[in-house]
Amino acid sequence: MSFDVTTVRKDFPILHTLVGKKELVYLDNAATTQKPQSVIDTIDNYYTSSNANIHRGVHYLAELATEAYEESRRVVSRFLNARSENEIIFVKGTTDGINMIAHSFGERYINAGDEILISTMEHHANIVPWQLICESKGAILKVIPVNDAGELDMEAFDELLSDRTRLVSVVHASNSLGTINPVKTIIEKAHAAGAKVLLDGAQAVGHFPVDVQDLDCDFYVFSGHKLFGPTGIGAVYGKYDLLETLPPYQGGGDMISKVTFEKTTFKEPPGRFEAGTPHISGAIALAASIQYYEGLDRSALLAHEHDLLEYGTNLLSQFEGITLIGTARKKVSILSFTMEGSHPHDVATVLDSDGIAIRAGHHCTQPLLQRYGVSATARVSLAFYNTKDEIDKLVESLKKIQVLFA
Amino acid sequence: MSDLTQLYQEIILGHNKNPRNFSRLENHTGKADINNPLCGDEVTVYWKIEDQAYSEITFQAQGCAISRASASMMTELLKGKSLEESKRLFSSLLNFLSDADSSESLGDEFGELAALSGVRNYPSRIKCATLAWQALLGKE
Q: A367 with A290, same domain?
């Protein structure tokens, strides 16, 4: 197998959009990725030929939809190398998944005086749910600091980890900095201290292979829309033995075993955590996105992305007036920067006039940006369908911006 | 003029680079901080009211060119104006910015602020153009 970016780009109809008269250069993949035709067709086909509610119907369409939904769970399970599909819970996305774990794990295992350990580089989605649970339980939130390059301070981690730590919840790859964290070390040490570990994989799964058994994490969460799939769907992986001990997140239909007004019993995982009619078409399309992605030469794709990252890093670090925020040794293809004299929002607006889409702002990581003394950065985030030619266009446009605001 | 050159007119770029009244006002009678939750930008506006009119307005900001320029021009425009008059001007500026289809320009009373007309083609930037005004005069 090999990887040809020109061929791959043909699979993504939106990449051929014209912005005014300019060809779209889509460099905002950390916000959301674009979708291949096969994923778009899957959604269309589902509603055209197999739409029905799942699990309860006995008719033809209900069985088609149920089978497709449960097959999707197996696809996600194999994708993460879980032990069984019963370790996969469909959720709305990473935020929903973390909130589910915070609620269910928190309810069962977090008590007054316990500690939850996160890091400075967390997305607000991996900060606020823990603040809420700490508030309600009287637990304490502790934060692993980062160094100037955007790497976790592992010595500080060792000191912060204690027998009071119940959970370590950290990002696998940072959405603001690109940093890939040494999660295996974190997991080993956390387990040795008796703590469980949750990994926020939102920015990881679309870039490199993830094996939850090899990592030995207790929970792993990701969103479909950052993995070339639809919005509104994501998955939580949880070790089955652990999931079995957790109370439900939401109550409702489909998550029960039997309901009476005196006592209700719940399904075994994963059903216990999926109340109500789920995002059936989303789950099926997520499986389609995984199948598309796994159909590519993953190692060639990884090499291509690495190449792009190196190329972009070189050009931007040589660009006078530009400061890269996030220069960790191990990174996914994300380039966050500030430009002397030009605010990130103005940078993004002018780039947009050249058809170049990037993100400007705090990227839902306000404490992290505060650590670097800035309120906003311009963020370029690449996917495997980006090209060096697009990075050249970015740099040309940045030169114009520097002149405009000089 | 393209949308972009209309957005970043010389007047805007000038105020962005050299904002007027860009300081803390020591003997202020009022002060307000406001932030744009979308981007994390922050503006602090200081003012002094004497005889029911703004005798001085200053600001400090971490923000984009549009928000800095608008704040800078606001401190000049509203100096000497009454609270009521200032509110009327803000309301009319907001109406102007929100109506992308209108071909009308801002009245002469707005002076340099007419340079903000380009913001009408960028709805996501209206918040930037009105941030300091909101700090001073409250939400419209």
A: no
Residue pair B71/B61 in contact by the 8 Å Cβ criterion: yes
Instruction: Find which of B1, B4, B13 to mutate to test the A interface (most A CBs within 10 Å of its CB).
Output: B4
Contact A374, A325 (CB under 8 A): yes
- Checking if the pLDDT of A292 tops 70, the result is yes
Restricting to A residues 358-377, those with a Cβ less than 8 Å away from any Cβ of B are 360-362, 366, 369, 375-376
In sequence order, what are the residues at sequence separation of 6 or more whose Cβ sits closer than 8 angstroms to the Cβ of residue A209? A298
Q: Is A364 a catalytic residue?
A: yes
Global confidence as pTM: 0.94
Radius of gyration of chain A (CA): 22
Going from the C-alpha of A59 to that of each of A69, A72, A257, B37, the distances in angstroms are 16, 20, 21, 49
Question: What residues contact A253, with CB distance under 8 A and at least 6 apart?
Answer: A275, A276, A277
Q: Does B64 touch chain A (CB under 8 A)?
A: yes
Is A35 among the domain residues?
Answer: no
My answer on whether A286 and A303 are in the same domain is no
- Distance to chain A for B124, nearest Cα, Å: 10
Q: Name the residue among A349, A360, A369 with its Cβ closest to that of B7.
A: A349
Choose the CATH number for B3-137 among 3.20.20.70, 3.40.630.30, 3.90.1010.10, 3.30.70.1450.
3.90.1010.10
Cα distance from A116 to chain B (closest Cα, Å)? 26
ipTM given for this complex: 0.90
Beta carbon pairs, A and B, within 8 Å: 49
Interface test with A, best of B10, B39, B121 (most A CBs within 10 A): B39
pLDDT of residue A367: 95
A305 is in which domain, residue-wise? 5-27+298-404
Q: Return the residue in B17, B64, B121, B125 with the most chain A beta carbons within 10 A, the one to mutate for interface testing.
A: B64
For residue A1, the model assigns a pLDDT of 67
Which of the following is catalytic: A43, A62, A160, A364?
A: A364
Contact in structure between A189 and A196 (CB atoms under 8 Å): no
- Residue carrying the six token digits 């889409």: A357
Last residue of a domain, one of A266, A294, A322: A294
pLDDT greater than 90 at residue A336: yes
A107 and A121 fall within a common domain: yes
Give per-residue burial for B117-126: e unless 16+ CB within 10 Å, then b.
bbbbebeebb
State whether B4 and A353 contact (CB < 8 Å).
Answer: yes
Q: For residue A341, which residues of chain B lie inside 8 Å, CB to CB?
A: 17
